[in-house]
Amino acid sequence: KARQDRPGGVMLFEDSMSASLRLRQHLGARVHRAIEEQAFFLLYQPQLSLATGRVVGVEALLRWRDGEQVVAPEQFIDVADSAGLMQPLGRWVLDTALAQQRRWREQGWRVRMAVNLSTRQIIEDDSFVDFVRRSLLQHGAAPGELELEVTETMVTEDMASGSGRLRQLRDMGVQIAIDDFGTGYSSLGQLRHLPVNRLKIDRVFIQGLDTDPQDRHIAEMIIRMGHAVWLGVLAEGVETTAQREVLKELHCDEAQGSLYAEPLDADELPALFQRLGVA
Ligand code: C2E
Ligand code: MG
Ligand code: MG
Ligand code: MG
C-alpha cells in the first residue's frame, strides 16, 4: 500500500499540522474573548534577599480562568505568542502588575515588580518601549522598580536584530533579568555586553543543589559568572531549607520558590510583607 511505502511520519505530520492549526484558531478566538471578559488574572510570587530574609520583589505570573479550571501559562503562552496574541495580553499583564504595585506602594510596601516577556513582545513590537515608558508614568513607578524577565535567546536576538529594545529599556533604568539561566548558551564574554542586571538560575539546577554535586557546581559557576560581571543572581524554585543553605554558602543574592511562598493572590501579599519585612 502507498501509505506503508512512505515514512509514517508524513501522515502524522500532516495530521498534527492541521490539528495545531485548528487549536490555534480556536485558542485565538478564545484569547481575544477572554481579554474582553477579564478571564485572565495574575498571581504574585515573592523574591527574597538571602542575606536579610526580606522581600525585595515579586514576580507576576499569568493565569487563565477557563470555565471552572485555571489554565497554567505553559499550556497557552507559546501558542498565544505564535498567534500574535501575546502582544495585547502582555500589555495587559504589564499594566495590571504596575497597577497592583502602585496599590502596595500606597499601603507602604515598596517592592520591585518582575514581569515575564514573550518573544514576540520584544522582537516584533516597535512600540513596546514607548508602552513601557507610558505605563511607568501612568502608574507613578520609577523605572528601577520594574524588572522585565527575558530568555537568553531573546536578549541575544534583540541585540542581533539591531533593534536594541532591551538596551533602550535598560538605558531608561528598567531592570532586565535573564530567566531560566543555564538552559541557553550565553557565554561569559557575551554577558558583560548584554543589557542585563540579573541572572535567574533555572530551577533544574536548584533541585539537586544539596544532593547532586554537578548541580551544585553549575549553580556555583553561574553565581560566580554573574558576580564577575556585576550581575545579581537569583535562584528560582527553591523548595527546601537545605537548598537555601547551600545558596547562602555560595553567596547567591536572592531566592524565590515554594520554600518561601507559592504564587499568591494579590491580597495575600501584605501579610507576608508584614511578616518577613520588605527591603
Ligand atoms: P518562569 O518565569 O520561570 O516562572 C517560574 C515558574 O516556576 C512558575 O510557574 C512558578 O509557579 C514555578 N515555581 C515557583 N516556585 C516553584 C518551586 O518552588 N517549585 C516548582 N516546581 N515550581 C515553582 P508558572 O506560574 O506556571 O509559569 C510558568 C512559565 O510561564 C513562567 O516560567 C514564564 O516563562 C511563563 N509566564 C508566566 N506568566 C507569564 C506572563 O505574564 N507572560 C509571559 N510571557 N510568560 C509568562
Ligand atoms: Mg519568570
Ligand atoms: Mg524561570
Ligand atoms: Mg520557566
UniProtKB/TrEMBL annotation:
<feature type="domain" description="EAL">
    <location>
        <begin position="24"/>
        <end position="277"/>
    </location>
</feature>
<protein>
    <submittedName>
        <fullName>EAL domain-containing protein</fullName>
    </submittedName>
</protein>
